[in-house]
Amino acid sequence: AQKITQTQPGMFVQEKEAVTLDCTYDTSDPSYGLFWYKQPSSGEMIFLIYQGSYDQQNATEGRYSLNFQKARKSANLVISASQLGDSAMYFCAMRLNSGGYQKVTFGTGTKLQVIP
Amino acid sequence: DAMVIQNPRYQVTQFGKPVTLSCSQTLNHNVMYWYQQKSSQAPKLLFHYYDKDFNNEADTPDNFQSRRPNTSFCFLDIRSPGLGDAAMYLCATSRDLAQWSYNEQFFGPGTRLTVL
């Protein structure tokens, strides 16, 4: 069965420090995509970063980078220089081909709180 | 700005009283999704439309239906809401379902449904 796991229900980080949010996944399909989304208390899911299974380099988007370790099946999100506005739920998600179409499965999320 | 819009943001209904949630998009994307997200849980895919083709998840209750009258609009109908259907309902779009595409999902702000 394909699944995605986030083992940290909650994290604290000091403002301006870096933080790593963990994500592991399990699939036997060689072709997949990994996403990270941010969900503030307002409820909207905001796309942060994407990593394809065949991508050679780790994805980066501004202060966000994805530490992709394919052999270990992990796709951790690193946020550098944390800001108060980074306080939110963070979801890791995996896209797989399922029954002829693509399906995205979300992890259970990590609640990040940035401390001034 | 191109976006995904959900109305209303908050919806209150009575037990057993049909309710419709709406979603519109200005992105001209082929695919529209409906997710249910209960408190402190991951979003759960209910169904999606690829153009006019409807794909229902196997475990989506019959109580949930969807309509997509045109590219821009998609509706979620809950025929007889129960207390367990209280949740955030998220609409999302993506450009297509192509296997090799980046295929990021863009989310609306969600509708929070309360069932009395």
List strands and helices in order, with pairings.
The complex is a heterodimer of chains A (116) and B (116).
Chain A: E1 3-5, E2 10-14, E3 19-21, E4 24-26, E5 33-39, E6 46-52, E7 60-61, E8 64-69, E9 74-79, E10 88-98, E11 101-106, E12 110-115
Parallel strand pairs in A: 2-12
Antiparallel strand pairs in A: 1-4, 3-9, 5-6, 5-10, 7-8, 8-9, 10-11, 10-12
Chain B: E1 4-7, E2 10-13, E3 19-25, E4 31-37, E5 44-50, E6 53-56, E7 64-67, E8 73-78, E9 87-94, E10 106-107, E11 111-115
Parallel strand pairs in B: 2-11
Antiparallel strand pairs in B: 1-3, 3-8, 4-5, 4-9, 5-6, 7-8, 9-10, 9-11
Description:
By secondary structure, chain A is mainly beta. Chain A has no helices and twelve strands. In chain A, the strands form three sheets. In chain A, strands 2, 5, 6, 10, 11 and 12 form a six-stranded mixed sheet that branches. A four-stranded antiparallel sheet of chain A has the order 3-9-8-7, with no helix packed on it. In chain A, strands 1-4 form a two-stranded antiparallel sheet. Chain A starts with a strand and ends with a strand. By secondary structure, chain B is an all-beta fold. In chain B, 31% of the residues are buried. At the A-B interface, strand 5, strand 6, strand 10 and strand 11 of A face strand 5, strand 9 and strand 10 of B.
Q: How do you describe this structure in short?
A:
By secondary structure, chain A is an all-beta fold.
Keywords:
heterodimer, A: 116 residues, mainly beta, four-stranded antiparallel β-sheet, B: 116 residues, seven-stranded mixed β-sheet, 50% strand
